[in-house]
């Protein structure tokens, strides 16, 4: 009977409360869905929040075109099973329309370009609240993010002028043109998300589990060599390794980790014992120490 | 596993970020890549020690100024508990962040620089922690290494602080003094050998044994309706569920309830958590309730147990912490957000300003500036259903929203 006895249950209760506030306070909310474990967790929480009714808002995927194929397959199946509405907007379209320019070179990625596509989609559908799966433990600048984070007409985050958030009262009042980014799993750690996936028996894409993959090494990180999305020098040797991914963002900037964890139980154990933080495997945060904060100011998730 | 949320308060250079960094380091919560980043940054800045404050200072602007300017949340866990630290700044101009951090915390750490002792800032930190009725406070007397680990200095600071305690309003607050050196790691996670005269626990040992039951006051159940769930499917054709979070105490199937503001009576029929049915919904759980009778309930209404009803009124007096650069003045209108309920409010009068350094009150006040704390009486355009803050932390608090900017401009604690 008691849903409040354990840490993970209290996080779940908090997230459900936040998601319900979004549905109650906004006209046109949307759940930003990447196909990653954090957004899959959000969908699960939203299902629980509105049962026995359906989730009262659509999902939206900003497709970089650099997705792991397993993720897209998974996404389409999930949406079908739950009878949800899915909106997809493509970074490739923004490139074709000349709104953004593709990066080139060794470290090129479409992670930055997503921002333009996202902001255009928000304007197109007049979304006033975008639910995202960001967590405060991911990165230092994220640690200061609010649960309801107001963005201006340009999607920008003014980190020095954030609304104070007191108790659990969420102030969603905004002006026309503004929108709010909502982070229901702000207070979860990576381990919490994995523990929840295990506890709830939530299905996730196969690339999160250990599998054999053609890979190459660069800067001490392991990269997939199976697709031509990741730029590879001729002298970077391709070797089959047993790996899994800890995040499934843009393939071009998501590195793999060596792993034998083929099921959720062993993944949770590995994470518990692990000594590399999750974003350590994402190259775009390493570009500069203030990378995340700069991207956030520009309207990134 | 339990979760404990802790707010930290200290003045600039009291070593708050260093203390948190030290806890993370000694509990092995810093991952290899984060530790490497701290090592290389410390070296780049020319330090011959590891600057743990770099683990928490997140924003570019504050790195440039070398100070923390906003609330940051830091996560770590031990075998026993999960911890969330709300790292809040200590300068005069950022009191609002401290109130914010403390508003969701169960315990608080107040830092004092052993070389400086109790200063005006310490009074302010203590005042705010007392105003928000934080149950457990740790007074960490830091930089003991810089005063030769002197027992005499520690005792002097303790005596000064105890004098402050005599002035507090909320007397049941538990206060524990611990001499530490965040930089050297004395009495933070590990008990120090440099202070044999100190017989108490190290900081983390103390936090580990804080009793959760001690932290949450059990009050009366309040169920503000967040959202009405009407599936309108064949299977759930007549389903009308009230989604919300239970505050204060438990609600059970069969309880006689009253719904405000209509004052309609009914009984709890079912309590759902997703597709499971519960006999009892406990405090802070997000459930969906159905009632025996088909009555009209909407968002902002409140379901309470018969015989245990809140105050219903169109006016109230509260201690307000003002957080905006525009002044609060008598006659001004704001939105009061009380839980999930919103009403329009007019400032009837400012009764008096309260000096948070315990130097008394000030009458004949014409307006409140940022970081002012005052007793204010409001008139509302419709009644709300409240409890006094001292009896009910959730149902006795509210935020003020500016009708022009939509920003959260104040927090209030109903008297």
From TrEMBL, chain A:
The keyword Nucleotide-binding applies. Keywords: ATP-binding, Nucleotide-binding, Nucleotidyltransferase, Transferase. It is an enzyme of class 2 (transferase). Its EC number is 2.7.7.4. One of its GO terms (biological process) is sulfate assimilation. InterPro entries: PAPS_reduct_dom, Rossmann-like_a/b/a_fold, SO4_adenylTrfase_ssu, Sulfate_adenylyltrnsfr_sub2. Gene3D superfamilies: HUPs (3.40.50.620). It comes from the Bacteria. The keyword Nucleotidyltransferase applies. GO terms for molecular function: ATP binding; sulfate adenylyltransferase (ATP) activity. Residues 29-255 form the Phosphoadenosine phosphosulphate reductase domain. Belongs to the PAPS reductase family. CysD subfamily. PANTHER family: SULFATE ADENYLYLTRANSFERASE SUBUNIT 2. This is Sulfate adenylyltransferase subunit 2. It comes from Snuella sedimenti. The gene is cysD.
UniProtKB/TrEMBL annotation, chain B:
It comes from the Bacteria. SUPFAM superfamilies: EF-Tu/eEF-1alpha/eIF2-gamma C-terminal domain, P-loop containing nucleoside triphosphate hydrolases, Translation proteins. One of its GO terms (biological process) is sulfur compound metabolic process. Pfam families: GTP-eEF1A_C, GTP_EFTU. Its EC number is 2.7.7.4. One of its GO terms (molecular function) is ATP binding. InterPro entries: CysN_GTP-bd (IPR041757), CysN_II (IPR044138), CysN_NoDQ_III (IPR044139), G_TR_CS (IPR031157), GTP-eEF1A_C (IPR054696), P-loop_NTPase (IPR027417), SO4_adenylTrfase_lsu (IPR011779), T_Tr_GTP-bd_dom (IPR000795). Residues 1-222 form the Tr-type G domain. Keywords: ATP-binding, GTP-binding, Nucleotide-binding, Nucleotidyltransferase, Transferase. NCBIfam families: CysN. This is sulfate adenylyltransferase. It comes from Snuella sedimenti.
